[in-house]
């Protein structure tokens, strides 16, 4: 049996921490106040998955590599599941209404439906619904 991590913490650099908190709050996400200060916050994606939103200055203290310019480059697409197609649409509409930008058009594979957006810092997020009972 292979290794299985207990929790996942994705670290993302952001231009303005409070603006990012406001954006993701508008989508319905919550934050752990224990891990929130002027440099960072811990966004709760689910019980085992978290996004650490770090000011760019603070993020740079963890790496000697240059940070990707999300205006023209992509390093990662963060994908998570939703409970229904309607929830996918609702979340993407909230993101667009809160200042996010469209990325890909909705894709319907019958058994799987997904739609993508860019957050206010240009990070790519994909929301998907998979019908486990579809043939």
What does this structure look like?
The protein has 135 residues and is of the alpha+beta class. Helix content is 20%, strand content 35%. A hairpin with a 3-residue loop joins strand 7 and strand 8 (112-118). The two termini are 29 Å apart. The mean pLDDT is 95.
Mean pLDDT: 95
Question: Helix count?
Answer: 3
**Helical proportion?**
10-25%
Largest sheet: 5 strands, mixed
Q: What is the helix/strand order?
A: EHEEEHEHEEEE
* Envelope shape: globular
Quick tags:
135 residues, alpha+beta, five-stranded mixed β-sheet, four-stranded mixed β-sheet, 35% strand
Provide a compact summary of the structure:
Helices cover 20% and strands 35% of the residues.
Write the topology of this structure:
Layout: E1 8-14, H1 17-26, E2 30-32, E3 40-46, E4 49-55, H2 56-59, E5 77-81, H3 85-97, E6 101-102, E7 107-108, E8 112-118, E9 124-130
Parallel strand pairs: 1-4, 5-9
Antiparallel strand pairs: 2-3, 3-4, 6-8, 7-8, 8-9
């Amino acid at each position: 049996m292979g290794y299985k991590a207990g929790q996942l913490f994705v670290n993302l650099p952001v231009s303005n921490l409070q603006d990012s908190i406001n954006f993701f709050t508008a989508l319905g996400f919550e934050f752990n106040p224990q891990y929130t200060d002027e440099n960072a916050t811990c966004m709760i994606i689910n019980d085992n998955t978290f996004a650490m939103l770090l000011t760019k200055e603070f993020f740079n203290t963890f790496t000697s590599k240059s940070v990707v310019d999300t205006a023209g480059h992509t390093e990662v697409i963060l994908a998570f599941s939703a409970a229904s197609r309607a929830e996918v649409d609702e979340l993407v509409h909230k993101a667009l209404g809160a200042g996010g930008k469209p990325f890909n058009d909705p894709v319907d594979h019958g058994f799987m439906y997904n739609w993508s957006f860019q957050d206010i810092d240009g990070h790519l997020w994909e929301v998907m619904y998979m019908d486990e009972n579809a043939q």
